[in-house]
C-alpha cells in the first residue's frame, strides 16, 4: 500500500500547524518549508478544510490553524478521509469485478483484514503524537528558524579561546 503525495503532505501540513500553535501558519511558509509549490498545498488545504481539520483566517495577518486540538485528530481518520483509493485488488473496486473467483476466493477477506490492521495501527496515533516527536517537526522548525539567522564565523581569537 502506498499513500499519495496529497495524503503525505496533508499530514505534514497538519503537523506543521500543530507545531506552530502560537501563531497562524501561512501556506507560503509551509510551501517554502517543504519546498513544494503553493498551488499544490492550496489544493490539499481545500480537502483539509472540507474534512474539518483546518480553519482559514482571512485578512492581512491571516493564515491557517487546526480546527481542533492536534491530540483529537487521529492519523487513521485523516488518511481515511484524504486518501481517495484503498483498492488493494480488483475485488475492492466498485462495480463489477472480472475475477471468476470473487465470491469464493480468500484473497478479498485477507486483504480486507490487512487493511483493517493497517488502520488499527494508524488509529493509535494522533497529529499531536507526530508533531511532538523530538526527532520530528519541532526540530526541523527550529533548524529552519536557525537558518534565517545570519551565521557569524568566530574570530581566530574566539576559536583558540574555546580550545
Short structural description:
With 163 residues, the protein is mainly alpha-helical. It is built from eight helices and two strands, in the order αααββααααα.
Describe the structure.
By secondary structure, the protein is mostly helical. Helices cover 52% and strands 5% of the residues. It contains eight helices and two strands; from the N terminus they run H-H-H-E-E-H-H-H-H-H. It has a two-stranded antiparallel ribbon with strand order 1-2. Strand 1 and strand 2 form a beta hairpin. Helix 1 crosses helix 4. The chain is elongated, with a radius of gyration of 21 Å. The protein starts with a helix and ends with a helix. The mean pLDDT is 80.
Task: Indicate the topology.
Blueprint: H1 5-19, H2 27-34, H3 38-50, E1 54-57, E2 63-66, H4 75-82, H5 107-122, H6 127-131, H7 137-148, H8 156-162
Antiparallel strand pairs: 1-2
Helix pairs in contact: 1-3, 1-4, 4-5
Average pLDDT, rounded to a whole number, is 80
Would you list the SSEs in sequence order as H and E? Answer: HHHEEHHHHH
Q: What class, by secondary structure content?
A: mainly alpha
CA-CA gap between termini: 52 Å
Strand share of the residues?
under 5%
Largest β sheet strand count, sense and barrel closure:
2 strands, antiparallel
**Spatial strand sequence of the major β-sheet:** 1-2
Question: What is the β-strand count?
Answer: 2
Identify the overall geometry.
elongated
Helix content: 40-55%
Q: Which residue ranges are poorly predicted, with pLDDT under 50 across at least 5 consecutive positions?
A: none
Radius of gyration: 21 Å
Oligomer: single chain
Number of helices: 8
Amino acid at each position: 500500500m502506498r499513500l499519495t503525495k496529497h495524503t503525505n503532505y496533508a499530514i505534514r501540513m497538519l503537523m506543521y500547524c500543530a507545531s506552530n500553535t502560537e501563531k497562524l501558519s501561512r501556506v507560503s511558509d509551509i510551501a517554502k518549508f517543504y519546498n513544494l509549490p503553493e498551488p499544490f498545498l492550496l489544493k490539499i488545504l481545500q480537502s483539509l478544510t472540507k474534512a474539518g481539520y483546518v480553519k482559514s483566517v482571512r485578512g492581512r495577518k491571516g493564515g491557517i490553524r487546526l480546527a481542533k486540538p492536534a491530540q483529537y485528530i487521529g492519523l487513521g481518520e485523516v488518511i481515511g478521509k484524504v486518501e481517495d483509493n484503498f483498492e488493494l485488488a480488483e475485488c475492492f473496486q466498485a462495480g463489477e469485478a472480472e475475477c471468476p473467483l470473487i465470491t469464493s476466493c480468500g484473497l478479498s477477506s485477507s486483504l480486507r483484514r490487512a487493511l483493517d490492521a493497517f488502520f488499527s495501527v494508524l488509529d493509535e496515533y494522533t497529529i499531536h503524537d507526530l508533531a511532538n516527536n523530538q526527532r520530528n517537526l519541532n526540530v526541523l522548525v527550529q533548524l529552519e528558524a536557525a537558518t534565517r539567522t545570519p551565521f557569524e564565523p568566530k574570530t581566530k581569537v574566539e576559536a583558540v579561546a574555546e580550545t
